[in-house]
Design brief:
Keywords: ATP-binding, Ligase, Magnesium, Manganese, Metal-binding, Nucleotide-binding, Protein biosynthesis, Ribonucleoprotein, Ribosomal protein. Pfam families: RimK (PF08443), Rimk_N (PF18030). By secondary structure, the protein is α+β, with helices and mostly antiparallel strands. The protein is built from nine helices and 16 strands. The strands form four sheets. A five-stranded antiparallel sheet has the order 14-13-12-15-16, sandwiched between helices. A four-stranded parallel sheet has the order 2-1-6-7, with helices on both faces. A hairpin with a 2-residue loop joins β12 and β13 (196-204). α1 (13-24) packs across α9 (278-290) and α2 runs antiparallel to α3. Bound molecules: adenosine-5'-triphosphate (ATP) and magnesium ion (2 copies).
């Protein structure tokens, strides 16, 4: 098969592993930088131009689209779909998963556990928002944050109010969330492919840090999920329409609470923690759908 990995950086671990895993199975693998594709939009004959040539004969595409280029990257994925190329992540699902607010709404409608979350249109009444989130301490998150940056723990009401006022003043959109203390600075990442959890890890923030992101100095180890956690992860990926997803959850007194669902989950942490060939499982998923 001829498979494209959409990636802006051929040196990233995830990109390299997908190429390697595909080649190990005898596929013709190509790295395509979606930011450098031109789209041909015309009646009945959609096309893609890359490095001066029209792309042809692809069977599958594996998008690894960074958050900052969601708009254009999704257009490229959609173009592949119009050309009848199977994508490991549907363009629609990609857009949906990148909108944190919309994703949380979809997850809550599906009946999944979530930390209580308040979103407002820069409301001046910050006190009421903090109350609705259960009162301080609360977690305040920039909607477009990533890798733990833009996620703040406000210990008390005064700091929560001033942080909210500051973000409002900057016209930065935030959500205010109940702080799940019993998670103890850890979260769980479940890697879901085609409705099955293929690997899971627990990430623990460094000493004194409530954020467990590996980019913030957290560490990861393999974990066996409870049935409840496994079902929640599978359901979360399903309701967002993601064939490949990284589902992040907090372990709380009332069961697993979904934090977010990633549509381009990194492979390095999960492969290191589990020792599994997750890239190979993504290739197999593409194979099953192209056949
Ligand atoms: N409501 C909460 N209660 C307790 N801990 C939280 C809460 N929200 C987030 N955390 C911790 O902070 C970390 C970062 O939060 P989150 O995943 O929401 O943002 P992010 O990682 O910056 O976003 P993204 O994953 O999209 O890059 C989480 O992994 C978790 O450890
Ligand atoms: Mg996160
Ligand atoms: Mg994320």
């Amino acid at each position: 098969m001829k498979i494209a990995v959409l990636s802006q950086n051929p040196n990233l671990y995830s990109t390299k592993r997908l190429i390697e895993a595909g080649m190990n199975k005898g596929h013709e693998m190509h790295i395509i930088d979606h930011s450098k594709c031109d789209l041909i939009i015309e009646k009945k004959r959609p096309g893609l131009i890359y490095q001066g040539k029209e792309l042809e004969g692809f069977d599958g595409v594996i998008p690894r689209i960074g958050a900052s280029i969601t708009f254009y990257g999704t257009a490229v994925v959609r173009q592949f779909e119009m050309m009848k190329v199977f994508s490991s992540v549907e363009s629609q699902a990609l857009v949906r998963s990148r909108d944190k607010l919309r994703s949380l709404q979809i997850l809550s409608r599906a009946g999944l556990g979530l930390p209580k979350t308040i979103f407002s249109n820069y409301s001046k009444n910050v006190g009421a928002i903090i109350d609705k989130a259960g009162g301080a301490p609360v977690v305040i998150k920039l909607l477009e944050g990533t890798q733990g940056l833009g996620v703040v723990l406000a210990d008390n009401r005064n700091s929560a109010e001033s942080i909210l006022e500051a973000f409002n003043g900057l016209q930065a959109r935030v959500i205010v969330q109940e702080f799940i203390k019993e998670a103890k600075g850890a979260d769980i990442r479940a890697f879901v492919i085609d409705g099955v959890v293929v690997g899971s890890m627990k990430r623990q923030g460094k000493e004194g840090e409530f954020r467990s992101n590996l980019h913030r100095g957290g560490s990861a180890q393999i974990i066996e999920l409870t049935d409840e956690e496994e079902n929640a992860a599978i359901k979360a990926a399903k309701c967002l329409g993601l064939g490949v997803a990284g589902v992040d959850m907090l372990q709380s007194d009332r069961g697993p609470l979904i934090l977010e669902v990633n549509s381009s989950p990194g492979l390095e942490g999960i492969e290191a923690a589990t020792g599994k060939n997750i890239a190979g499982k993504i290739i197999k998923y593409v194979e099953r759908n192209v056949d």
